[in-house]
Specification:
five-stranded antiparallel beta sheet; 229 residues; alpha+beta; single chain; 5 helices
Length: 229
């Protein structure tokens, strides 16, 4: 009952965006999108380490008696990354836990551009402030929980989408992403992803790409048990 698509376009041969889809338990899906500082090989290595940290802490839910919330997971990661004292490195990351049986989604965000939700004919960003992981050891994060409804479309973008610049130095911006989503909400997730990238490329023209770009689209087509004939 869920239609998911994503695309990653690195600024260089290797990039620092992180994207993963995990199922820590039945009827649950974790979607993770992150962006580490820097580009090229150092960013890719740092991103791979953070990606493994996310996976390990997500699947730990199976072993622990108490379920870890997305906010608690980010707080724990932040402490570890800060203790490593890699001052030039940090990570913005959005962690979304979709629980289809409960019909809820819970977000925690550490500085990634706010996720987009399309519902009832309108696309809007969900306000979720947060400090990048690794910046301050005592940073705390919040859980943002929403009821899931059939027909909703969630879009996550790394800042390379919002901060894409044209030849005149103008920024693509969130408003243009919202417009693309509103025009294409009824199409399959893969086509929505493609339309966002096409709009960015058309806007930028021949301006060089300065940052990695990643888009994830999650469409809720059905909730509850599968329908029988």
């Amino acid at each position: 009952g869920v239609d998911i698509a994503w695309h990653f376009d690195p600024a260089r041969e290797l990039g620092g965006d992180i994207c993963d889809f995990l199922s820590p338990e039945p009827n649950a899906l974790v979607v993770v999108l992150g962006d580490v500082s820097g580009k090229g090989v150092p960013a890719a290595l740092y991103g791979a380490a953070i990606g493994e940290m996310v996976r390990g802490r997500t699947f730990r839910r199976r072993l622990e008696k108490r379920e870890t919330t997305p906010a608690e997971l980010l707080s724990g990661m932040n402490r570890i990354l800060h203790e490593r004292n890699l001052e030039e490195y940090y990570c913005t990351l959005c962690y979304a836990m979709f629980e289809f049986k409960k019909k809820i989604v819970t977000f925690a965000n550490s500085g990634l551009p706010f996720p987009i939700l399309w519902k009832e004919g309108k696309a809007q960003q969900l306000d979720m402030p947060g400090t990048p992981l690794g910046s301050f050891g005592a940073s705390q994060y919040d859980n943002y929980q929403f009821a899931l409804e059939v027909g909703e479309v969630f879009v996550l973008c790394s800042d390379g989408i919002f901060e894409a610049f044209d030849e005149a130095g103008q920024e693509f911006g969130a408003a243009r992403v919202l417009e693309v989503v509103e025009r294409n909400y009824d199409r399959p997730s893969k086509e929505i992803v493609n339309e966002i990238f096409a709009a960015v490329q058309n806007f930028c023209g021949d301006a060089p790409q300065s940052d990695d770009r990643t888009v994830v689209v999650v469409k809720i087509n059905q909730l509850g048990p599968p329908k029988t004939a």
